[in-house]
Specification:
Elements (H helix, E strand, L loop, with lengths): L8 H15 L2 H4 L5 H19 L4 H8 L7 H8 L1 E5 L12 E8 L2 E8 L5 H7 L6 H16 L4 E7 L6 H5 L2 H14 L4 E10 H5 L6 E5 L3 E3 L3 H8 L6 H8 L3 H6 L5 E3 L10 H20 L3 H13 L3 E7 L5 E7 L1
Parallel strand pairs: 3-4, 4-5, 5-6, 5-7, 6-8
Antiparallel strand pairs: 1-2, 2-3, 9-10
Helix pairs in contact: 1-3, 4-12, 5-14, 7-9, 11-12
C-alpha cells in the first residue's frame, strides 16, 4: 500500500499476509485448503482496522487530513456537484490556481462553489502553490461570492489548506487585508453560505473563505489557528512535539463540535476519505443539501442576524484571578 502511515503498519502486515494466501495458495497449502486461516486473518484484519481507526489520536487525524491520496476540492466538485463551470482571475492582479471556483449545481440547486486546491505531484503542487492561496486567490473568491450574491445563488466553500501563503510576495500584495475584507464581506452576503472543512483548515487561510451560516467538517479533518508543528516550535521550541501540540490545540472534529465551532461532522469511511472517495462525496452532498434547505427557509434578515451571532459567540474562555492568598478564582469571560 502506498503512503502508509506509521499507525497503519499492523493493518498493512495483516493485509500483506492475506494477499499472499489469496494470490499464491500453492506456496502454502501443498494441496491443503487454507480457507479457514484466510477467514481468521480477515476477521483479525477487520478488528484491527476498527480498533485503530475508532481510537485515533489528534495527531493521527492530522496525518489522515494530510494524506496525499485524500480527495481534494476538485475531486468533490466532480463527485458531489454537476455542471461545474470554473471561473478565473481576480480582475486585479492574476489567476491564483490554489483557489478554484465557479458555477455548479448541488442536486437541483444552482450554487457558486469555491475551494482551496492542492496538487497530487510536485508539478501540480507548484502550480497550486501547495494549496496556499495568495491575496489574488482570496480576491477571486470574493469576486465570485459577490457574483453569487448578485444572482441570488448560495455559496458553498470547501476548505483544505495549511494556511494562506506566507511569502514576501503575498505580504507585498497585502494578504492580511485580502483575508480581512473577505471576513467582513462574508458576514454581509445575503445569500446562504455553507463552509466545509474537507482536509486541513489552517488559520486565516481557511477562515478567509470560512465565514458561513453553517460550518461542516469531515470526520478526519482539522481546523486550527496554527499547525501543530508551528505550535510546538513556539511552545516547546521543537517541532518534534507536534503530536503533543495537536492534542493541546483541540483541533479535531469532535473537539470543534463540542466547542460549537462547527455545526456538524460529516462521516468518513473507516480508514479515511481516501479509502472510498465516492462514499465520502455522497455523505458530503447529503449534509450540504440538508443544511442548505434549512438555511434557504430563513428570511434574509434572520439569516444575517444568526450568522453574525454565530461568530460573535466564538472564543469563550476562563480567566484565573489570583487572590491575596494566591488562590485561583475562575472568572468566565468571552472574547
Amino acid at each position: 500500500m502506498k503512503h502508509q502511515l506509521d499507525f497503519e503498519k499492523p493493518i498493512i502486515e495483516l493485509q500483506t499476509k492475506l494477499d499472499e494466501l489469496r494470490q499464491h495458495p500453492e506456496k502454502h497449502s501443498l494441496g491443503i485448503s487454507f480457507d479457514e486461516e484466510i477467514q481468521l486473518i480477515e476477521k483479525k484484519l477487520e478488528e484491527t482496522r476498527r480498533q485503530i481507526f475508532l481510537n485515533l489520536t489528534a495527531w493521527q487525524r492530522v496525518q489522515l487530513a494530510r494524506h496525499p491520496r485524500r480527495p481534494y476540492t476538485l475531486d468533490y466538485i466532480g463527485s458531489a456537484f454537476t455542471d461545474f463551470q470554473e471561473l478565473h482571475g481576480d480582475r486585479l492582479f492574476a489567476e491564483d490556481r490554489a483557489m478554484v471556483g465557479g458555477f455548479a449545481k448541488l442536486g437541483e440547486q444552482r450554487v457558486v462553489v469555491i475551494g482551496t486546491q492542492k496538487g497530487r505531484d510536485t508539478k501540480e503542487n507548484i502550480l497550486r502553490n501547495f494549496g496556499s492561496a495568495h491575496p489574488e486567490g482570496y480576491r477571486k473568491a470574493l469576486r465570485l461570492m459577490r457574483l453569487a450574491n448578485k444572482f441570488s445563488l448560495p455559496v458553498i466553500t470547501l476548505i483544505d489548506t495549511a494556511g494562506a501563503y506566507p511569502g514576501v510576495a503575498a505580504e507585498e500584495r497585502h494578504i492580511a487585508e485580502a483575508i480581512a475584507v473577505n471576513l467582513r464581506e462574508m458576514t454581509l452576503l445575503e445569500v446562504p453560505i455553507i463552509a466545509a472543512v474537507i482536509g486541513e483548515g489552517g488559520s486565516g487561510g481557511a477562515l478567509g473563505i470560512g465565514v458561513a451560516d453553517r460550518v461542516l467538517i469531515l470526520e478526519n479533518a482539522y481546523y486550527s489557528v496554527i499547525s501543530p508543528e508551528g505550535c510546538a516550535a513556539i511552545l516547546w521550541k521543537d517541532r518534534a512535539n507536534a503530536a503533543k501540540a495537536a492534542a493541546a490545540l483541540k483541533i479535531t472534529a469532535n473537539d470543534l463540535l463540542e466547542f460549537k465551532l462547527v455545526d456538524e461532522i460529516v462521516p468518513e469511511p473507516l480508514g479515511g476519505a481516501h479509502t472510498d472517495t465516492a462514499l465520502t462525496a455522497a455523505n458530503l452532498k447529503t449534509h450540504l443539501l440538508k443544511h442548505l434547505e434549512e438555511i434557504l427557509a430563513l428570511p434574509i434578515a434572520e439569516r444575517l442576524k444568526l450568522r453574525y451571532e454565530k461568530f460573535r459567540s466564538h472564543g469563550h474562555f476562563t480567566e484565573k484571578i489570583e487572590s491575596a492568598e494566591n488562590d485561583a478564582i475562575p472568572q468566565a469571560s468571552a472574547a
